[in-house]
Write a structure and sequence with these properties.
By secondary structure, the chain is an alpha+beta fold. It has two domains: 5-229, P-loop containing nucleotide triphosphate hydrolases (Rossmann fold, 3-Layer(aba) Sandwich); 230-369, OB fold (Dihydrolipoamide Acetyltransferase, E2P). The chain contains eight helices and 20 strands. The strands form four sheets. A six-stranded mixed sheet has the order 6-7-8-3-9-10, sandwiched between helices. It is globular and about 80 Å long.
Length: 370
C-alpha cells in the first residue's frame, strides 16, 4: 500500500542554527519524489525527519491521515536504503532480506515466500546463500533494496543509495530502482545531489537550497522553465549573462550588447523595461561561422570534438565566457582564435529578474505555488 506524505511548516534546528526554517510539501501516493540539492541544503535532514531519526522542532508530518511526529521509527512502516547499504556482514543474502520479517514475527512459511519473491524481483535469488563480502557493490545495493521492500512498507526512503557505486553501475542501478518502484507502486522519497540521476528516476523533483524548496516539478518542466537563477544553474549546465528587457509598443525585446531580439513569452506582469539575468543553455546558443552576421560577436578559445557534438568555448566581445554545444558536422572544427557570431534560441532561453528570484516568462510550472 502506498500513502500520501504531507509536510506542513516543518522546522528543524540545532540550538540557534536553523537547518530547515519553514518547509511544506505534499508527496502523492505511489510517487517517486526526489529531494535534490547541494551538500548541506537540508535534504537528508528532511528525509531523516520523515523516517523518525531526527527530532522535529515544528510543523506536522502525516502519512495519509496519520500524524507521525511523535511516532517511533519502528511504528512508521517505512523501508530505508542507506548510502553505505547497511547490510549485516555476518548474515547471508537470504538472512539479510528476511531480517525485517522475522522481527515482525511472521509465520515461517510467509517469511520464506516473501523472501523468495523479493530475491527473485531483485534478481539476486542465485546469490541467496552468499555472504556480503562476496558481493559487488551493485549486488549489495540490491540486497538492501530487497530487505527494505520485503516488509511491505507504506513509504520507501532512500538516502543517496548510488553514490558509492562506479559510473556504469549507477546508471544500471537507477534503472533497477525506478522499475522496481514502479512495479511495486510504493511512495518513494529519494535523496541525491546528482542532477542527472534525479532527472532519470523521478516523477517529480524538489530542488532545495539552504533548507528551502526552490522549485517542485517534473524533470522536463524544471529543466526547461526553472523558477529562479539557483535552479537554472543547479540543474544542468547554463551560461548566465546580464542584459536588458526593453518594452516598446507592447512588444518585449531581449537586449545583449549590440544584439536585440524579440521575446514573445514574457509574462504580462513583467512587461516593463528592466535589467535582467539571462540563462542560455549551451545547446540554445546558435553558432554562425560568419562573424559579420547579426548576433553576439565572439572569439573561439577552445573546441572539443566529442563525436555526436562539438563543444566550443567562446569569449564574447563583452568579456563574458560562454559554452556552446553544436551537433558535429562534416565541416572542419573551428580553431582557437576563430571569429564567430551567436544568436539565441528565444523559445528555450530563460529570463530572470535582476536579483535572480523569479523567471519572468510564461510557462513556469512550480508545484510549490499550488
Amino acid at each position: 500500500m502506498s500513502v500520501e506524505i504531507r509536510i506542513s511548516h516543518a522546522l528543524k534546528k540545532y540550538g540557534d542554527n536553523v537547518i530547515i526554517p519553514d518547509l511544506s510539501v505534499n508527496i502523492k501516493p505511489g510517487e517517486f519524489f526526489t529531494l535534490l540539492g547541494p551538500s548541506g541544503c537540508g535534504k537528508t535532514t528532511l528525509l531523516r525527519m520523515i523516517a523518525g531519526f531526527n527530532s522535529i522542532e515544528g510543523g506536522d508530518f502525516f502519512f495519509g491521515d496519520k500524524r507521525i511526529n511523535d511516532l517511533d521509527p519502528s511504528k512508521r512502516n517505512i523501508g530505508m536504503v542507506f548510502q553505505n547499504y547497511a547490510i549485516f556482514p555476518h548474515y547471508t543474502v537470504r538472512k539479510n532480506v528476511e531480517f525485517g520479517l522475522k522481527n515482525r514475527r511472521m509465520p515461517r512459511e510467509e517469511i520464506k515466500s516473501r523472501t523468495d519473491q523479493f530475491l527473485k524481483l531483485m534478481q539476486i535469488d542465485t546469490l541467496a546463500d552468499r555472504m556480503p563480502d562476496r558481493l559487488s557493490g551493485g549486488q549489495q545495493q540490491r540486497v538492501a533494496l530487497a530487505r527494505a521492500l520485503c516488509i511491505s512498507p507504506d513509504v520507501l526512503l532512500m538516502d543517496e543509495p548510488l553514490s558509492n557505486l562506479d559510473a556504469k553501475l549507477r546508471v544500471e542501478m537507477r534503472t533497477v530502482i525506478k522499475n522496481i518502484q514502479h512495479d511495486v507502486g510504493i511512495t518513494c522519497v529519494y535523496v541525491t545531489h546528482d542532477q542527472e540521476e534525479a532527472m532519470a528516476v523521478s516523477d517529480r523533483i524538489a530542488v532545495m537550497n539552504a533548507g528551502v524548496i526552490q522549485h517542485i516539478g517534473n524533470p522536463k518542466s524544471i529543466y526547461q522553465r526553472p523558477a529562479n537563477v539557483f535552479v537554472a544553474t543547479f540543474i544542468g549546465r547554463t551560461n548566465m549573462l546580464e542584459g536588458e528587457l526593453q518594452v516598446e509598443g507592447g512588444k518585449a525585446f531581449l537586449c545583449l550588447s549590440d544584439y536585440r531580439t524579440q521575446m514573445d513569452t514574457v509574462a504580462p506582469e513583467y512587461m516593463q523595461s528592466q535589467k535582467i539575468q539571462i540563462s542560455v543553455r549551451p545547446e540554445e546558443l546558435l553558432l554562425n561561422r560568419d562573424a559579420n552576421a547579426d548576433g553576439l560577436k565572439g572569439t573561439v578559445q577552445d573546441a572539443v570534438f566529442l563525436g555526436l557534438n562539438t563543444h566550443y568555448f567562446v569569449k564574447l566581445d563583452s568579456g563574458e565566457d560562454v559554452e556552446i554545444i553544436q551537433e558535429s558536422s562534416i565541416e572542419e572544427t573551428l580553431g582557437k582564435g576563430a571569429r564567430i557570431s551567436l544568436t539565441i534560441n528565444t523559445e528555450k532561453v530563460n529570463l530572470f529578474l535582476a536579483d535572480g528570484t523569479k523567471n519572468i516568462l510564461t510557462g513556469v510550472k512550480n508545484d510549490l505555488d499550488a
